[in-house]
Amino acid sequence: MASYRGHLTFAGLLGAGYGSLALLEGNWDWRTALIAAGLTTLGGLLPDLDSDSGVPVRELFGIAAAVVPILLFDHVKALCQQSTEQTVAVLAVLYLFIRYVLSYIFKSLTVHRGMFHSLPALVIAGLATYLLYPSEDMRRRLFFSGGVMLGFLSHLVLDEIYSVDFMGVRLHLNNYAGSALKLVSKSWLATLTTYLLLALLAWRVWWSGHQ
Ligand SMILES: [Zn+2]
């Protein structure tokens, strides 16, 4: 399995490249590029949420706490009747909630399951991003969810092929190659839960397009 820093570096570089595609679009500004870059990086760290070490989880919730308020900025501002003070207050609370409360709940609930490192989990991450981004602009939503899935895929591929030790200094074939890009795990319960969640999100995306 590749190291946390290896994943962060690789997904970060991918994110910078992917995010800058937004600037080629013409109508999208630097904010879209930054969000896409952040989401790609986040996607590259997501599978290690089940890691036993607390560092990736803490960093991950730190990044999520920063990215989610940016994503929801326009939405919250509309809810707060365009009041900037109220918007900033709500987003600050949201930041603290994700950073401390949500990460605490998550850490106390999860065990090392293995389904975080799988292709259905990759699709779940993409669908969830699509649903979370509140916008009528379907192309932007697809762009963001594509970023998360790209980062996620980079993680699975890295885990599958390499063992990256601190910035990729030492590369060698992973003895467990073949385990990261799986479709099912040994635990039928984890597999079932994953596919149920996948079906639920897929239905929700389909439904959001037909209302
Ligand atoms: Zn991993």
In short:
The protein is mostly helical and 211 residues long. Helices cover 70% and strands 0% of the residues. The protein contains 7 helices and no strands.
Description:
The protein has helices at 4-24, 30-45, 54-79, 84-109, 119-132, 138-161, 188-208. α2 (30-45) packs antiparallel against α3 (54-79), α5 packs antiparallel against α6 (138-161) and α5 runs parallel beside α7 (188-208). With 211 residues, it is an all-alpha fold. The protein has 7 helices and no strands. It has a domain at 4-51 and 112-208. Mean pLDDT is 82; it is low at 163-178. The structure holds zinc ion. Residues 1, 47-48, 117, 155, 159 line the site of zinc ion.
Largest sheet: none
- Cα radius of gyration in angstroms: 18 Å
Q: What series of H and E elements makes up the topology? A: HHHHHHH
Low-confidence stretches: 163-178
What overall geometry do the principal axes of the alpha carbons give?
globular
The structure class reads mainly alpha
Mean pLDDT: 82
Ends distance: 43 Å
Number of strands: 0
Tally of individual helices: 7
* Small-molecule binders: zinc ion
Give the strand content: under 5%
Give the helix level as a range of percent. over 70%
Topology:
Blueprint: H1 4-24, H2 30-45, H3 54-79, H4 84-109, H5 119-132, H6 138-161, H7 188-208
This protein binds zinc ion (ZN).
Zinc ion (ZN) binds at residues 1, 47-48, 117, 155, 159.
Keywords, please?
mainly alpha, 7 helices, binds zinc ion, about 210 residues, about 70% helix
